[in-house]
Amino acid sequence: MRIIVATKNQDKVKEISKILKRCPYNVVSLSALRKKIYIREDGKTFEENAVKKALAVSKGYPKDYVLGEDSGLSVEYLNGLPGVYSKRYSGKNANTFKNNKKLLKALEGVPLSKRDAAYKCLLVLAKNKKVLKVFEGECRGRINNDFCGENGFGYDPVFYLPEFKKTAAEISVTAKNKISHRGKAFRKFNSYISKIAGIKC
Ligand code: IMP
Predict the structure, then answer these.
(1) Cβ-proximal residues to 1 (8 Å cutoff; 6+ apart), any chain
(2) Is residue 199 predicted with pLDDT exceeding 80?
(3) Is the dihedral of CA 30, 31, 34, 40 positive or negative?
(4) What is the Å distance from ligand 1's center to 102 Cα?
(5) Which atom of ligand 1 is closest in space to residue 69's alpha carbon?
(6) What domains appear along the chain, each with residue ranges and CATH number?
(7) Whose CA is nearest to atom 7 of ligand 1?
(8) How far is the CA of 95 from the centre of ligand 1 (A)?
(9) Given the CA of residue 168, which atom of ligand 1 is nearest to it?
(10) What is the pLDDT of residues 14-26, one digit of tens each?
């Protein structure tokens, strides 16, 4: 059985492949598909974007199970920003470094006790152009005062995990997957697909 994950983000693909590595199905990402599918990520919520991704790919590949994934960082002090704008927070020519810099600047002078944040992941399972189920995962932490660590991607160098006393970029992918928003959402998906497809992971 094949499951298409509707993302081209290779950092996510790396994490997802690890999370699903014991499962007996073939996980492929958008970059591995022949048909080019254009998805406009203009939803107002993670769920809206994840539904868009899942349905756009399901249209092209109706026989496969498709997972639309959308995720990002939500900072309480910033009323939920960067949220759905996480990837392009610093504007037109956004990149990870500029996004993190902008975030640290927006929180300059804000005490650590007011820097609570959460990573969120919304996963939408579709087949035959219909949404079958939505799964959600959240990972709580807070925004550090500076960059720390080399692992992970995106906001990981500034996302501090109190339970580890480290940022998400200072722990291994395996450790991150155990507590991450993506790990949680994908494990929920795993239990569901195991039941409906009669497979065991
Ligand atoms: P997407 O590919 O449009 O869903 O972009 C989501 C953006 O959210 C990424 O480009 C990152 O900036 C951020 N993001 C999502 N998940 C993570 C994570 O696990 N670590 C760090 N940043 C993340």
Answers:
(1) 24, 25, 26, 65, 197, 199
(2) no
(3) positive
(4) 15
(5) 4
(6) 2-197 (3.90.950.10)
(7) 87
(8) 11
(9) 20
(10) 899 889 888 888 8
For tokens 């160098």, name the residue.
Answer: 157
**Hey, whose CA ends up nearest to atom 2 of ligand 1?**
9
Distance CA 133, CA 50 (A): 11
User: Catalytic residue positions?
Assistant: 70
Q: What phi and psi, each to the nearest 5 degrees, are found at residue 96?
A: -55, -45
**Amino acid identity for residue 32 in this structure:** A
Q: Which of 86, 100, 121 to mutate to test the pocket of ligand 1 (most atoms within 8 A of CB)?
A: 86
Q: What is the pLDDT of residue 96?
A: 97
pLDDT in tens, 149-180: 999 999 999 999 999 999 999 999 999 999 99
Distance 198 CA to ligand 1 centre (A): 32
DSSP line for 80-123: T-BGGGGGGTT-TT--HHHHHHHHHHHTTT--GGG-EEEEEEEE
Report angle CA 144, 11, 7 to the nearest 5 degrees.
Answer: 120
Q: What is the pLDDT of residues 51-76, one digit of tens each?
A: 999 999 999 999 999 999 999 999 99
Ligand 1: atom nearest CA of 99 is 12
Task: Please state whether the predicted TM-score (pTM) of the whole model is above 0.90.
Answer: yes
User: How do beta strands 130-143 and 116-127 pair?
Assistant: antiparallel
